[in-house]
Amino acid sequence: MRRTGRRHDIAPYGGARSPGRTLAGVAAVLAVTGGVLYGGFVLLAAGPDDPEVVAARGRFERFLDAWESGDARRAGRLTDRPADAESLIRSVMTNLGPSRTEITPGAGERTDRGAVAIPFTVRMALPGAGRHAWDSTADLSKRGGTWKVEFRTPVIHPEMAPGQTLALKRRARAPILARDGRRLRSASLVGTVDPATGRGTSGLQARYDEQLVGSGGVPNRMVVVERASGRVVRALTTPRGPGGTPVRTTVDQRVQQAAADALRDVDGDAALVAIQPSSGHILAAANVPAGMNRALVGHYPPGSTFKVVTAAALLERGMRVSDRAACPRFAYANGQRFENQDRFVLPRGATLRDAFAKSCNTFFVRSRKKFTDSALHDTAGAFGVGGTWDVGAATFDGSVPVADGDNDKAASTIGQGRVQVSPLVMASIAATVKQGEFAQPVLVPGKVRHRHRATRRLAPEVVDGLRDMMRATVTYGAAAALRDVPGEPHAKTGTAEFGDGTPPRTHAWMIGYQGRQDLAWAVLLADGGSGSADAGPVAVRFLRNLDR
């Protein structure tokens, strides 16, 4: 680095005396410089302008430049003990990993034994420990006509003794807890911590980094350690303020484990969310593979699981579950053809209950004529979808845009087009049917300040109709895989198309709630096939795991 303010411009020595210079003039020089008159010559004291001090300081600056840049080998070669200096400097710079190092030398002066002592200040920006500085002094002596740094361990830091080095010791982070007060076991929710800086980098570790570290938010401290054992000898910095405090979540470890076990053998991306409908508390959020928390922040088309919202809109407009609901092989919107999975049809006399339970796309697409462009958007608001949820963690809270034309409205009725949700949103839709009203999901209750409220409450007859149809979906419809599962499950399946492939690729969904338990849930297998055939068995495993 360029070391400003420390170098001195030196006038050349040995210049001719002015003819008119008198002894009195020399005496004046002596008075100013503190020199000694000897044989008619002035001998200056060995201060910073002494040529030998200047030469030593130049050599020392080369040493500091090498140290600053992390070139331990080059720094070592400028000392009287190259191997020892290289080893210690490399150890210090590797252990501390400073993002910035600045070392500023002082002027320097001769010592009684003829060496040159130069003070210096080290300033470092340390990851997770802030900025720190310390002062030290190095002696330089001439060896074979060349100035060398007399290397001793305290030169690097005066608090170090031989056999020691500097390191960063992480301040213990407070834990992230489940509802029972034990450490939460969910990699996707907990998140990660950078091993170098000690900072949270994802999940709750990142969101609540300062709380978990403590006041000041400094996770690391600089310490002196024994090189051989790593034992801390002394702390050189102390984080400000008290230690961190835990973050307590609503996760139920038993439910979380049941969800994780249900996804264990799933190939590809998948998520399972469980909610307590009465409170909105998130009981589980499992993801495979671990990493992205798609359970809470994923953006996916919901497919036929969204028919819960569409059916609610029909019930709000006076339709009853027993009313006739024609289910032909195809339905059209401005020439765009919609069809049922495997192009099935329902017999004459089929009802809304049947169309919902069997997941008849063509009926719901044709029902769009009963809706204004904003109807599904508005009904989704009664389920909290599209609001801003204050959960205590990052979430995607769904989007049901006002329809942009007839084709967009037709696609929206079956959870396609521009409708987007997360698994959390779909679990919350099931929970709303179970509870009879929307209760915003919550993960970290102590951090929730403004729970989102639904735009309106669903009418009792609408809720009753949805419950009837979701139970029928299990007893004789597309969610028949759950028929023998205890707890009186209610469900809705979904197979959501995405992409431009032929045939289209599909996400597999199943959502539901337990009639005899305070539990709602959603299963998503991204690019995972069919709701009934692929998501269904995962839901069965989850619910049976809970029943053990």
Description:
With 548 residues, this protein is an alpha+beta fold. The protein has helices at residues 23-33, 51-69, 72-77, 82-96, 153-156, 187-190, 203-207, 209-213, 253-262, 294-297, 307-316, 352-358, 361-366, 375-382, 406-413, 423-435, 460-475, 531-546; strands at residues 36-38, 41-43, 100-105, 109-110, 116-126, 130-143, 146-149, 164-170, 176-177, 220-226, 232-235, 247-248, 270-275, 282-288, 330-333, 336-339, 489-498, 505-514, 520-525. The strands form six sheets. Strands 3, 4, 5, 6 and 7 form a five-stranded antiparallel beta sheet that branches. It has a five-stranded antiparallel beta sheet with strand order 14-13-19-18-17, with helices on both faces. A hairpin with a 5-residue loop joins strand 4 and strand 5 (116-126). The longest helix is centred in the N-terminal third of the chain and has 19 residues, at 51-69. It is elongated.
How are the secondary structure elements laid out?
Layout: H1 23-33, E1 36-38, E2 41-43, H2 51-69, H3 72-77, H4 82-96, E3 100-105, E4 109-110, E5 116-126, E6 130-143, E7 146-149, H5 153-156, E8 164-170, E9 176-177, H6 187-190, H7 203-207, H8 209-213, E10 220-226, E11 232-235, E12 247-248, H9 253-262, E13 270-275, E14 282-288, H10 294-297, H11 307-316, E15 330-333, E16 336-339, H12 352-358, H13 361-366, H14 375-382, H15 406-413, H16 423-435, H17 460-475, E17 489-498, E18 505-514, E19 520-525, H18 531-546
Parallel strand pairs: 9-12
Antiparallel strand pairs: 1-2, 3-5, 4-5, 5-6, 6-7, 8-10, 10-11, 13-14, 13-19, 15-16, 17-18, 18-19
Helix pairs in contact: 9-18, 11-14, 11-17, 12-17
